[in-house]
């Protein structure tokens, strides 16, 4: 249970932290199988042990399940074109634009019940003591999907993205310009720089030393850092971007060894991994907020 890509949110301080009520709200929207004519179904699944909220050391683990039909557009297009060609051959006329749309809709409805389905899970962690909501999602669409279902299930929860006094881009650029990293962090060897004015021109460094005059010159010429790989306390590595998202999260060997030494079996390992991850990330968030000038309060 190790998250890979973090979207970090704050829950409003007045949200209802009653675990039983929260779990009961999720239970009203479980994942159901896609119906014959449904392209997608979304709902909550058990993270573990038959409960919609799995709790370890006061930390909550949630899992959103999504079932989707696999019906490629290329297949629909091919069958539609075959049907149109048959009509043109049989009736000696051209299929019009509206009729083609109707054909495509009919083919889609015909093929949907026969389509294969796949399932995926989006995980999230809630720290009710500190009002963190962290979604493990590599794309904005998956995070938005999770939030959409969460708010439909638990309507009285107010969620906002984490915001800081200093923007990540400004802070990362300053660290590179000064040749120094904030307390608790070290700068690694991946970087993206963009032109501040247009945002179009980009320079990327991968597994490249970031010390020296070359990086300094780019910054002096107006480029700003939009992605930077860092490591926190020799325990967690990640890429921080200008949207305050943590990508390619890697929990280093020393941390995983601690987890493995604490667990007796696979079932216990799941809980140990989650507890250790939540604890480490909570402490890392504190240091990250300090590095970014503190949290910006909502207006």
Structure commentary:
With 299 residues, the chain is α+β, with helices and mostly antiparallel strands. The protein folds into three domains: 113 residues; 41 residues, no CATH class; 124 residues, no CATH class. It is built from eight helices and twelve strands. Strands 1, 2, 3, 4, 5, 6 and 7 form a seven-stranded antiparallel sheet that branches. A hairpin with a 3-residue loop joins β10 and β11. α2 packs across α3 and α7 packs antiparallel against α8. The radius of gyration is 24 Å and the shape is globular.
Key traits:
single chain, alpha+beta, 299 residues, globular, 8 helices, 3 domains
Helical element count? Answer: 8
Rounded to the nearest angstrom, the distance between the terminal CA atoms is: 35 Å
Count of folded domains: 3
* N-to-C order of helices and strands: EHEEEHHEEHEHEEHEEEHH
Can you summarize the main beta sheet? 7 strands, antiparallel
Helix fraction bin: 25-40%
β-sheet strand percentage: 25-35%
Query: How many individual β-strands?
Result: 12
- Poorly predicted ranges: none
Judged by helices, strands and strand pairing, the structural class is: alpha+beta
Mean pLDDT: 89
Give the C-alpha Rg.
24 Å
Shape: globular
């Amino acid at each position: 249970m190790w998250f890979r890509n973090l979207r970090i949110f704050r829950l409003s301080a007045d949200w209802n932290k009653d675990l039983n009520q929260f779990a009961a709200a999720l239970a009203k929207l479980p994942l159901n199988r896609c119906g014959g004519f449904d392209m997608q179904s979304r709902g909550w699944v058990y993270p573990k042990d038959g409960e919609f909220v799995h709790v370890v050391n006061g930390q909550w683990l949630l899992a959103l399940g999504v079932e989707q039909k696999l019906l490629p557009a290329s297949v629909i297009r091919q069958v539609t074109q075959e049907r149109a060609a048959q009509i043109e051959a049989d009736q000696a006329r051209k299929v019009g634009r509206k009729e083609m749309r109707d054909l495509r809709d009919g083919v889609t409805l015909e093929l949907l019940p026969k389509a294969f389905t796949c399932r995926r899970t989006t995980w999230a962690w809630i720290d009710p003591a500190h009002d963190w909501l962290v979604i493990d999602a590599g794309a904005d669409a998956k995070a938005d999907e999770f939030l959409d279902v969460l708010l439909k299930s638990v309507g009285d929860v107010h969620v906002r993205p984490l915001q800081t006094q200093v923007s990540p881009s400004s802070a990362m650029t300053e660290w590179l310009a000064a040749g120094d990293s904030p307390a608790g962090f070290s700068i690694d060897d991946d970087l993206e720089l963009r032109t501040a004015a247009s945002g179009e021109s980009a320079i990327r460094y991968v597994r490249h030393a970031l010390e020296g005059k070359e990086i300094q010159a780019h910054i002096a010429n107006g480029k700003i850092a939009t992605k930077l790989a860092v490591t926190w306390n020799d325990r967690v590595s990640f890429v921080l971007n200008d949207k305050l998202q943590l990508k390619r999260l890697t929990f280093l060997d020393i941390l995983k060894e601690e987890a493995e030494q604490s667990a007796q079996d696979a079932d216990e390992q799941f809980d140990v991994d989650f507890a250790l991850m939540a604890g480490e990330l909570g402490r890392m968030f504190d240091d990250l907020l300090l590095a970014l000038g503190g949290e910006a309060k909502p207006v």
